[in-house]
Amino acid sequence: MILGTGIDLAEVDRIQASIERYGDRFIHRIYTEKERAYVARKANKYERYAARFAAKEAGMKAIGTGWRHGITWQDFEVTNLPSGRPTITFHGVAKQIAERMGVKHAHLSLTHTKQYGQAFLILED
Length: 125
Known about the structure:
Blueprint: E1 2-11, H1 12-22, H2 24-30, H3 33-40, H4 45-63, E2 76-80, E3 86-90, H5 92-101, E4 105-112, E5 116-124
Antiparallel strand pairs: 1-5, 2-3, 4-5
């Protein structure tokens, strides 16, 4: 059964501008160590950061909290399965909420272009 869905679209230019303006302070506040390591190995870094930003927003929507209850950016982490398929891992308060909801499976789809990074998330029991 579907327990939650979330979708978000992030503008690559806005993410790039934030990174250029705030540097590591922005990157370390938003992205986990694993996310930063993944992006560092890839081309089109700003597009990949934008897609992960969108995934975090989609995660907030899927668990129904937004920024309430002490949710932080780092509570949502985009990782990749051995197949390469992206998924989302919950930490902290988001993990507690997802467990209370009965979330057992997360299905994440990411896409990006030069202009946008997009994420769609489905949570199931």
